[in-house]
Amino acid sequence: MKTENMACARIEEAIAQFATTGVLTEQKPYGNGHINDTFLLVYQLPEGIKKQYILQRMNHDIFKKPRELMENIVHVTGYLREAIIAQGGDPERETLNVVKTRGGENYYLDDGGNYWRMFLFIERTVCLEKVESAKDFYDSAVAFGNFQRMLADYPAGNLYETIPNFHHTPSRFQAFRKAVAEDKMGRAALVREEIAFALARERDTCVLTDLLAAGQLPLRVTHNDTKLNNILFDEESRKALCIIDLDTVMPGLSHYDFGDSIRFGASTGEEDEKDLSKIEMDLSLYEIFTKGYLEGCGGRLTDKEIEMLPMGAKLMTYECGIRFLADYLEGDVYFKIHRDGHNLDRARTQFKLVADMEAKWDDMRAIGEKYRN
Questions:
Q1: How many DSSP H helices and E strands does the chain contain?
Q2: Where are the alpha helices (DSSP H) in 87-133?
Q3: Coil, strand, or helix at residue 290?
Q4: Is the dihedral angle over the CA atoms 71, 77, 81, 86 positive or is it negative?
Q5: Fewer Cβ atoms within 10 A, N terminus or C terminus of the chain?
Q6: What are the start-end ranges of the E strands in the chain?
Q7: Which among 245, 217, 240, 216 has a CA at the least distance from the CA of 230?
Q8: Dist CA 28 CA 19 (whole Å)
Q9: Are strands 37-44 and 50-58 parallel, antiparallel or unpaired?
Q10: Is the pLDDT of residue 195 over 80?
């Protein structure tokens, strides 16, 4: 009870710090996120008008640089706001809007070391947890491509790297090799086939980073978590409206966002499916997403970026697979599991997707060429 009272006191303290308007009439937990604590606040304005806000306690155990994270969000959303206004859109609904504290700060740090932030609530929207139709996947592609287009001229190098080497595949590979070598749980002998699969593709791990270092791929502003449920859709038109969950916005490659979307959305099965016969990359969904993404990008990707899109899909899937397998070898210390061997099942689905992509490589490349212009 004492802990609950303290938590309530912290929330009330945080609410009072932000520059809201009206009288607070309701506050309640909101959404199904597993990282930050999220609350919906409802305020009553004159003449019966309501205004809603989202309050979050940031998880600083996961996001260890909350100040830099919030600076990234403020700078990127401010830039997006200007781009949306310039193209005749609605900046109140088409990007996140950070609510400042009464002292003009981007966040509030309470005496308990908790970091709080607030956004305007975007009303009359829905969030989809999974692809329900090909149109949903296409619309998500256009939305993420449009995000890339509007930020194409943003100086990505000015953003903080709030999670170092987040999608740096060579670093992920070295962490995987370390997990294999240490074999803390004595599990390596049980997964020799999976380890061999991962090790055999070591040369692929540095393809994109080498091209970046050579100046053949441009540094971009990337979202880095391009799941369907990070898009708000208009409630009536079902049009993709706003990209949300910008905690992982950092400098990166367009292939990270494209590839993670394919890994998540073009698979024919669940991420932890045990029956690998159910797992493949749906080439028709790959084409739908490629078409939508390039349309959304509006010609802002280079020819080399388009050429390397299949490698983005493959590497983001492979990278996720070796992270799952490394966690299995280390005793399931990072990803939450719900059964024995859960991370191993996840790794196997990712590797099955990688193998299927390799079998469909020529088709994937041809699709990129088809929608290049």
A1: 13, 11
A2: 91-94
A3: helix
A4: positive
A5: N
A6: 23-29, 37-44, 50-58, 98-99, 108-109, 115-120, 125-127, 220-222, 231-234, 240-243, 250-252
A7: 245
A8: 19
A9: antiparallel
A10: yes
